[in-house]
Amino acid sequence: VAAVLGKRWLLGKLLGHRKGDTEYYRSITRMTYGVVCFGLIFSVVGTILGGVWANYSWGRFWGWDPKENGALLICLAELLILHLRMGGYIRDFGLAVMAVLTGMVVAFSWFGVNLLNVGLHSYGFTAGIARALYAYYGLCLAIVAAALIWRALTERAARASERAPAGVESA
């Protein structure tokens, strides 16, 4: 859900949707942050409960299986977002980009590790999933790349307008 909100924020800015409505984008940012917090709580609880189940079923809490590593990657990606945001390293734009990238981590952890055909969790419903995953990764990377290019061009235009002498418009 955070990835969808991040894509909404980025695509809205790219396409000029509600261009002057800062409150709209601020609310999307707050929702994204809240969903990441919510997701982190449930990801950590789910990972721990999965370890408890594995200990009961297989006699070990953690075995560094790809699916277990995927669960850990989700937790780490969400923690990274929260720490970068709380530390002031990212703001609204960075939160949206990181949410989209974390959506890619979640997709890989849920579906992609099944394609590796290793470990105890290599099972189920993988027919055709590779093509769908690659399409999703491509879409996410295209949105992030377009947003980064848009951001760079916007900042360059802002710097150029600051340097231009009074009464002279920049190209």
User: How many beta-strand runs?
Assistant: 0
Q: Roughly what fraction of the amino acids lie in strands?
A: under 5%
Residue windows where pLDDT falls under 50 for at least 5 positions: none
Largest sheet, if any?
none
What's the gyration radius in Å? 20 Å
Mean pLDDT: 90
Structural class: mainly alpha
Using the alpha-carbon principal axes, give the shape. elongated
Helix content range: over 70%
Number of helices: 5
How would you summarize this macromolecular structure in one to three sentences?
This protein is 74% helix and 0% strand.
Description:
The protein is mostly helical and 171 residues long. 74% of the residues lie in helices and 0% in strands. It is built from 5 helices and no strands. It has helices at 2-15, 22-58, 66-86, 92-110, 129-163. The longest helix is centred in the N-terminal third of the chain and has 37 residues, at 22-58.
Structural features:
171 residues; 5 helices; 0% strand; 74% helix; elongated; mainly alpha; single chain
Record the SSE blueprint:
Elements lengths: L1 H14 L6 H37 L7 H21 L5 H19 L18 H35 L8
Helix pairs in contact: 1-2, 1-4, 1-5, 2-3, 2-4, 3-4, 4-5
